[in-house]
Write a structure and sequence with these properties.
By secondary structure, the chain is of the alpha+beta class. The chain is built from eleven helices and 15 strands. It has helices at 36-42, 58-62, 105-122, 173-178, 182-193, 206-223, 230-237, 286-300, 322-329, 348-373, 391-410, and strands at 15-21, 48-56, 70-81, 86-91, 127-132, 138-139, 153-154, 163-168, 197-200, 245-253, 256-266, 269-277, 305-307, 334-337, 342-345.
Length: 415
């Protein structure tokens, strides 16, 4: 049964109501992270996917004189904390605003706050906080991200990388290549010239997925990143419903896999999700050739863009992932900056506890990452997205430990 509209106290200027709906309502979402596919997929790995229908005040949002209803979908992913007694709610790259919403950061901030207040009324009472990764962005190498005026709190750590590079695939391939740095074109051609073969793998073959996971495990061990279990990638690569096309590519030399990437095609958008590489023959520049191959295939499938999915915010040589910035921006494309993760606390005391645990975890991860990255010669090939895998699992463990210590100090059994 759909959840009823928010209580009368919820009277938003932009948002009229938020109601529970079927997951299929998210099929038209712009981002795959807000889609029914993503909700169904994450539901298999510890998250509860909830779909909502947001009804907007059309006059307030676009100064239109019509009274026709305007609705968008909203995917919310919920995860248990402390043995299921509490939970968090996460909205990846949402909310998606209706067409013709004013290009005004202040109004976006107000709308975001209204969505948060409305969700608090319809989410489980156990929800500690709601975390948003707003999809709004600014464009340009030196352009700052949008400044969203909102009472929401800037999270101590981002879940989705706020910054990325998107290559426009609409021009002819010759123009796309010409927009890349000359060294990048040279490296991609060098790989092929030196005998590196590029192919799309059959994801129905367990041996192919095993090969990818072996490379990924080697990459994680070498570069100090966390990864999911093999079943996670296997399930993702087997996903063919919901209009999704997930692809696995290999670059090989003399019969040995040197590099592999996973891409996702949906709604004429291609996204580079994961990458892995061997420590051998790195001078053959296999990863450069793989990215170009994926772009060529995406263009052949009528994709209009290729998202390299995550870079550091700027070309700071002191950043532990500075090489990644250089690697991905070398393929040309537009550099986008999003606001980053924003939190809406629902239970203030528990939220502060979680925030403390998250800060500690972030600092520990940063120290480890800095030590590892300093040892790497080819850090540009690290997929930024892989840094955030298994993120909440570690935070939940730390939050539980902090909670238990607090109970022992008080000598009671309070949650």
């Amino acid at each position: 049964m759909p959840v009823s509209a928010p209580a009368p106290a919820f009277e938003g200027l932009f948002v009229e109501s938020i109601e529970r709906t079927e997951l299929s309502a998210c099929s038209t979402a712009s981002s795959f992270l807000q889609s029914d596919f993503w909700g169904s997929f994450k539901g298999k790995f510890g998250w509860q996917a909830l779909a909502f229908r947001v009804t907007w005040n059309v006059r307030a949002s676009n100064n239109d004189e019509t009274n026709d209803p305007c609705e968008t979908s909203l995917l919310v992913l919920c995860r248990s904390l402390i043995k299921g007694r509490f939970s968090l709610a996460y909205i990846p790259w949402g909310p998606e605003l209706p067409d013709h919403f004013p290009d005004d950061d202040a109004k976006r901030g107000s709308a975001l706050h209204e969505i948060a207040r409305g969700l608090k009324d319809v989410l489980p009472a156990s929800t500690v906080f709601i975390r948003f990764d707003p999809p709004w962005y600014s464009e340009g190498r030196e352009t700052p991200p949008p400044r969203i005026p909102t009472p929401l709190i800037r999270a101590t750590a981002d879940i989705q990388a706020p910054d990325t590079v998107i290559v426009d695939l609409r021009p002819p391939m010759e123009e796309i290549l010409a927009a890349m740095k000359s060294k990048w074109r040279y490296n991609a051609r060098l790989a092929v010239k030196k005998g590196v073969t590029l192919r799309r793998a059959s994801v129905t073959e367990d041996s192919e997925i095993n090969e990818f996971y072996n490379l990924l495990t080697e990459t994680a061990r070498r570069d100090g990143i966390a990864i999911h279990g093999k079943e996670y990638y296997q399930t993702l690569l087997h996903s063919k419903a919901f209009g999704i096309d997930t692809r696995l590519y290999f670059a090989e030399h003399e019969g040995k896999a040197l590099a592999s990437i996973v891409t996702l095609f949906r709604n004429q958008k291609a996204t580079y999700l994961y990458g892995a590489s061997s420590g051998e023959k790195r001078n053959l520049m296999a990863m450069y050739a793989l990215q170009v191959k994926a772009m060529e295939d995406a263009k052949a499938e009528n994709c209009s863009s290729y998202d390299l999915f995550g870079i550091p915010p700027n070309d700071d040589p002191a950043h532990p992932m500075a090489g990644l910035y250089r690697f991905k921006t070398g393929f040309g494309g537009a550099i986008l900056h999003r606001p980053g993760s924003l939190d809406y606390p629902c239970r203030s005391l528990l939220y502060r506890l979680f925030r403390t645990a998250e800060t500690l975890r972030k600092n520990i991860r940063s120290l480890k990452k800095n030590r590892v990255v300093r040892k790497l010669q080819f850090s540009e090939q690290l997929p930024y997205r892989q840094q955030n895998t298994q993120y909440f699992a570690g935070l939940v463990r730390q939050l539980t430990e902090l909670s238990n210590k607090s109970k022992r100090r008080r000598g009671d059994n309070a949650p």
